[in-house]
Structures are given as structure tokens and as C-alpha cells.
Amino acid sequence: MSADQGKRMAAEAAMEYVEENTVIGVGTGSTVNLFIDALADMKARIDGTISSSEASTARLRKHGIPVLDLNEVGTLPLYVDGADESTRFLQLIKGGGGALTREKIVAAASERFICVADESKLVDVLGGFPLPVEVIPMARSYVARELVKLGGRPELRSGFTTDNGNIILDVHGLKIMEPIKLEQQINNIPGVVTNGLFALRPADLLLLGSADGVRKLTAE
Ligand SMILES: O=C[C@H](O)[C@H](O)[C@H](O)COP(=O)(O)O
């Protein structure tokens, strides 16, 4: 089974958790794009969405799905997003598409975070996927030196600017044994907006598309 099939199965399985007359938090990426396409079928029955990126906003609007302002909406009942890696504790690396900061905001503002992914994203230890860190441009060199002190090899994501006007440093070579500690350490570096570890606020449910169907994982 291809990764694309796994993504589609997971994205469509998330529809079961979408309740009528609610506002849905929507993540970013190729798996979420499939969720957005499925969500279009029930757009008349939801109150709207909160989007985590300009790319998702464009796709939602193309389908005629309303996109609201998070400042005008209270706590969201549900956030659906993909991941680059997940452990069985549902701690994640996100940000392969550079949307990590807005994703973290919407996840934090949501009661339930359902992560949708194909089975290749499940790992024993985070860090095989380079950890994205969003950085204010003037702090690039300083933050890079601090990330080296933490044992990583930061590389500037060339030609990329985030929706917030910042740069991304992708940190290679980390074997992340203490995700919560590292998430806090990196976020404490002046100039870092946030990093792609979702450990302080992990997912609540992981829907993994696999050859055996959709596996549902909750944190062990
Ligand atoms: O910034 C991008 C997001 O964190 C994505 O959710 C993540 O990169 C996974 O994307 P995909 O579903 O395309 O594998």
C-alpha cells in the first residue's frame, strides 16, 4: 500500500469525529489537504474552520468552506492535523511544510487534537526527520550556534519564508530522548518563535492509515 493511500484512509477516518454546528481547526500538509477535500462534503453543516496556514486557507476557500478568525472564536472542540513523525506516546515532529507556529497555536486552542498520518510516520524515537525551528531572521546565526550546542546540525531552509515572515532552520542529527525538555530548551533561545516538537501538547488520538486499515492509537 502506498503512503498516499494511507494518508487518504487516515484523513477520511477523521471525518467521523467532525460534529455538526462546530468550528473545526484545520492543520496543513498533504494529509490535511485530503481531510479538507472530505470536509467540503459537509461544509453546510459546520460553523466554519480555523486554518493553520495560508495554503490551507486557500484550499478551504476554494471549496467554499468558511475560514474564521481565531480571535473571534473560543476554544475549539477539534483540531485535525498531520505530522512528520509520531511516537506511540503521540509526541510529534511537525513543520515539514513550515506551518509549525500557527499549527501549535491552533492545537493549543483545541480540546482534542487528532493526528492523521500514514503508518510510515510512526517511529520509536523522534529526530530522524530534521526538526524545524522557526526563527526571526536577525537571530539566524545566533540561534544556529545555540542549536549546535544542543547537539544538532541546523540547516537554513533555502528560499523559504514562513507565513509569519520568518526563516526555518531544519535541525539534523538529533536523537530526541526527552522531547518535552528539548521543546522547552529550544523555545527558550531568544529569536526562536517555536520549534516543531509537539510534546508539551501531544496529539490525543493518532489515526494511522495502514495496509490493515486505520489503526487508532491513544497515548500509552
Ligand atoms: O508544516 C507542515 C505540517 O506540520 C504538516 O502537518 C507535516 O509536515 C505533515 O505533512 P504531510 O501530511 O504532507 O506529510
TrEMBL record:
PANTHER family: RIBOSE-5-PHOSPHATE ISOMERASE (PTHR11934)
Name of the encoding gene: rpiA
Cellular component annotations (GO), alphabetically ordered: cytosol
Family membership noted in the UniProt record: Belongs to the ribose 5-phosphate isomerase family.
HAMAP family: Rib_5P_isom_A (MF_00170)
Alphabetized NCBIfam families for the sequence: PRK00702.1, rpiA
Keywords (A to Z) from UniProt: Isomerase
Assembly mode: Homodimer.
Pfam families in UniProt: Rib_5-P_isom_A
Reactions catalysed, as given in the entry: aldehydo-D-ribose 5-phosphate = D-ribulose 5-phosphate
Pathway: Carbohydrate degradation; pentose phosphate pathway; D-ribose 5-phosphate from D-ribulose 5-phosphate (non-oxidative stage): step 1/1
Name the UniProt record assigns to this protein: Ribose-5-phosphate isomerase A
Residues given in the record as substrate binding sites: 28-31, 81-84, 94-97, 121
Keyword Acyltransferase included in the entry's annotation: no
Active-site annotation: 103
E.C. number: 5.3.1.6
MF (Gene Ontology): ribose-5-phosphate isomerase activity
Gene3D superfamilies listed in its UniProt record: 3.30.70.260, 3.40.50.1360
Annotated transmembrane regions: none
